[in-house]
Design a protein that fits this description.
Strand order of the largest sheet: 1-3-2-4-7-5-6
Number of domains: 1
Bound molecules: zinc ion
Shape: globular
Order of helices and strands: EEHHHEHHEEHHHHEHEHH
Organism: Tigriopus californicus (Marine copepod)
Protein name: N-formylglutamate amidohydrolase
Radius of gyration: 18 Å
CATH class: Alpha Beta
Number of strands: 7
Helix content: 25-40%
Length: 299
């Protein structure tokens, strides 16, 4: 059994010794938090992923173009996601689904296609399927409109959270993109709002997070990255958001190193709580249903 289920109402604290490699805490809100790169657990039976061992298995002339292996962990994103989930539950009285990979990124990269993710190691492939199956299961439990946040960390040294909707940096810089080409396609269809209103408008997620006092891009204050480095969103956002299919949208969050590591645990916790508040407000504005109860207006 790979999953470690904690149903809402189970106040059992997080028990690291009981954790499995892939952890799924089932929630009861149409909200999913995915944390693919925060894991620090080794695995004796999965070799490290290197570009050499992938090329050995796939010796094509252009293999080197596709085998860039990024092994850096997104440090403290698991700790942040737990605070975010706790904050949401404190405000709303219900909990998001929480899906975590505890394996080191040297062993598996959940946010890639399966070959790049696992280098075809059978055990790694099994964990890969467990993670993505957990997301599909959470979406099935939701059964209607919902929202997934894929939580990552970057070290671009601009102290700004990068919000990814799969819109490229060039398209953001030109403000030339369509809702059809975003990972929040279903929200655009449901709300009737334009892509620009949803990505950089006053009811965009960037607007809600900036209102909490934290810089982010895209946002009404900074609609585009300009010359800065920027992550548009990766495999999970593409596969599980509404660009591919269905009614569950996806947004990738790249949290800056300044807020995860450099400021220490107090800065980390303060930001994670603010991020939880911003998620509730965005959710309340765009996804709330009568059966979820009225989410607090005193957030
Ligand atoms: Zn990442």
């Amino acid at each position: 059994m790979v999953y470690d289920h904690c149903i809402k109402g189970d106040k059992t604290p997080h028990h690291p010794e009981k954790r499995q490699y892939i952890e799924y805490q089932m929630g009861n809100l149409p909200l999913i938090l995915s944390v693919p790169h925060g894991g620090m657990m080794p695995h004796p039976d999965i070799p490290d992923r290197t570009s050499n061992n992938l090329m050995a298995e796939h010796p094509t002339p252009n293999a080197h173009k596709n085998v860039k292996v990024v092994n850096l962990a997104d440090l403290f994103t698991i700790e942040m996601a737990i605070i975010i989930a706790d904050t949401i539950e404190e405000i709303v009285g219900k909990r998001p689904h929480l899906i975590i990979c505890h394996l080191r990124r040297t062993k598996i990269d959940i946010n890639r296609d399966i070959v790049a993710a696992t280098h075809n190691n059978p055990l790694a492939k099994a964990y890969y399927h467990d993670y993505h199956s957990a997301i599909r299961r959470a979406k099935a439990v939701i059964g209607h409109r919902g929202l997934l946040f894929d939580i990552h960390g970057q070290a671009h040294m601009q102290n700004s959270t990068e919000i990814g909707y799969l819109v490229s940096k060039a398209a953001l810089n030109d403000q030339n993109y369509d809702a059809f080409d975003t990972s929040i396609r279903a929200l655009a269809k449901h709300s009737g709002l334009t892509a620009q209103e949803l990505v950089v408008g006053h009811e965009s997620f960037g607007a809600f997070l900036e209102a909490e006092g934290y810089r982010c891009v895209p946002s009404p204050r900074q609609p585009s990255p300009g010359m800065e480095k920027y992550f548009r969103g990766g495999y999970i956002t593409r596969q599980h958001g509404s660009m591919s299919e269905g009614h569950v949208d996806a947004i990738q969050l790249e949290i800056p190193k300044e807020l995860r590591q450099d400021g220490g645990p107090v800065v980390l916790a303060k930001f994670a709580k603010s991020l939880g508040c911003a998620i509730v407000k965005f959710f309340q504005r765009h996804y709330e249903r009568p059966e979820d109860g009225h989410l607090s207006s005193s957030v």
